[in-house]
Amino acid sequence: MQTGTSSLSAWLSIHHTTYLLLGNTVYLGLGLVAPTEGIRWVKALTSITFFCLGSFFFSRFHRFLKPRARWVLVASYVLQLLLITTAAVIVTLGNDTSNEIHWQVIVPLAAVAFQASGQAVTSRVLQYGGLTSVVLTSNYCDLFSDPKLFAASNVERNRRIAAPVLLLLGAIFGGMFAHSSFGMAGALWAAVVLKAIVVFAWLLWKADPEDDN
After folding, report:
1. DSSP string covering 18-29, please?
2. Where are the domains of the chain?
3. Where are the transmembrane segments (predicted)?
4. Which end of the chain is more exposed for a tag (fewer CB within 10 A), N or C?
């Protein structure tokens, strides 16, 4: 849900998404063919670069520490929270520079893309590699390829259904904020609140003794 809200917020505030790397790669390719026709390829390159840097950082952060320990997960999400809060502050206080190559565009993009990679890495750390909150293509494929799709009890199917539904709800939630008096910045702040809720959820989540020791 937070992914949907923050992705929509990025699109509305700086007219670009930080989560869809396939689309960003296409934008980058189109931009390299005609680099003077717009700056979307610069935004795409920023998103891809900082998502990759974030993946490099968060994977090693978990690997070098105790990957599934509560404090490691909390620390990871606190950092993600700080990054998305930084983006929200810049969008709230800054001017409308979405059509320019400006630090008020590049920094929020970089911050949101970097923190988004943390979510993807967490799905791997928790051994839910097939269920990521960042891209849903493989999720849809796995869902409708599941031979037990219509079984009464199927935990994996239920997770794969919940992922796009919650993403959609997050986008709707963010859209409601964006079209209210709070505006586009309000949608991004909503994503901040949802990320903070995840941090508190990690603090309260029942621990596996083997992971938390």
Report:
1. SS-HHHHHHHHH
2. 2-207
3. 12-34, 40-59, 71-95, 161-180, 186-205
4. C
| Helix (H) or strand (E) segment spanning residue 185 | helix 183-204
* Domain 2-207 listed as CATH 1.25.40: no
Give the per-residue SS3 of 76-115: HHHHHHHHHHHHHHHHHHCCCCCCCCCHHHHHHHHHHHHH
CA angle centred on 104, ends 99 and 107, rounded to 5°: 115
User: Does residue 44 contact residue 37 with C-beta atoms inside 8 Å?
Assistant: no
pTM beyond cutoff 0.85: no
Q: If we measure between CA atoms, which residue out of 150, 148, 38 comes closest to residue 101?
A: 38
Hunting for tokens 């949101």 — which residue is that? Answer: 112
Q: Count CA atoms closer than 13 A to 79's CA, side-chain side.
A: 18
Question: Locate tokens 């990871």: which residue?
Answer: 76
**Residue 22: which of 47, 3, 1 has the closest Cα?**
47
* Residues with pLDDT less than 70, the chain: 1-20, 96-100, 129-135, 177-178, 182-184, 209-213
User: What is the distance between the alpha carbons of residues 61 and 40, in angstroms, rounded to a whole number?
Assistant: 31
Q: Helices 183-204 and 155-178: crossing angle, nearest 10°?
A: 140
d(CA 143, CA 160): 6
What tokens appear for 69 in the block?
A: 């320990």
**Does residue 68 contact residue 122 with C-beta atoms inside 8 Å?**
no
How far are the Cα atoms of 16, 49, 56, 69, 189 from residue 72, in angstroms, in the given order?
A: 31, 24, 16, 5, 24
